């Protein structure tokens, strides 16, 4: 089973979109094809590391 | 369409210098369909898209996809663009496979002549680095197909 940011995905996932909405929040949208959305979840940034004094972030799926 | 399509096809290996220029694959008794076209036709594809801003001097892993234990992912095309300078990197496991920089946000579309293979149970990550001193909006498109193993 495939995973995105460590979270299990349904078998029929085809398209994965990570985008910032108008309010500035990051959203994950997962589609089974070009039109059918399977689910939508909020994402938050988590600090992963500091490289040469600069931050490296990764997204984390917010549980609702 | 990016140049450099792979010269391998389902079941039959052909090189461009071995086929006449006007060959119509679809008129042949056994039609030959390019692998990426076939995988799209049977809906075994993956599209990854990112659009959003990244703060000054930061790197963000915008996609982190781990293949299933029974699937291989072959990344065939990518595009990176934004409203300012940026760097996009693709890692498979712990290895960088592709790095591109846009100096001013101009789009960098690229078709991988040799698709980037992501083996089963392996993570592919897309990192975007903002080297500027202000927040920049970026867009990443990455797509390919999967094969059940």
Q: Overall mean pLDDT score of chain B?
A: 86
Shape call of chain B: globular
| Poorly predicted regions of chain B | 7-13
Can you summarize the main beta sheet of chain B?
Answer: 4 strands, antiparallel
Multimerization status: heterodimer
End-to-end span of chain A in angstroms?
22 Å
Give the spatial strand order of the biggest sheet of chain B. Answer: 1-8-3-6
Mean pLDDT of chain A: 92
Strand arrangement within the widest β-sheet of chain A reads 3-4-5-6
The overall strand count of chain B is 8
CA-based gyration radius of chain B? 18 Å
Number of E-state strands of chain A: 6
Task: Indicate the structural class of chain A.
Answer: mainly beta
- Beta-strand content estimate of chain B: over 45%
Q: What is the ordering of alpha helices and beta strands of chain A? A: EEEEEE
Quick description:
Chain A contains no helices and six strands. Chain A is mostly beta strands and 64 residues long. In chain A, the strands form two sheets. Chain A has a four-stranded antiparallel sheet, with no helix packed on it. A two-stranded antiparallel sheet of chain A has the order 1-2.
Overall description:
The complex is a heterodimer of chains A (64) and B (149). Chain A has strands at 3-4, 7-8, 15-20, 26-31, 37-51, 54-61. By secondary structure, chain A is mainly β. Chain A has a 4-stranded antiparallel β-sheet with strand order 3-4-5-6, with no helix packed on it. Chain A has a two-stranded antiparallel ribbon with strand order 1-2. Chain A is built from no helices and 6 strands. The model of chain A has no long low-confidence stretch (mean pLDDT 92). Chain B is 5% helix and 51% strand. Chain B has one helix at 35-41; strands at 45-54, 59-66, 71-82, 86-92, 95-102, 108-118, 123-129, 136-148. The interface between A and B is medium-sized, with 25 and 25 residues. Strand 6 of chain A pairs parallel with strand 2 of chain B, so a sheet runs across the interface.
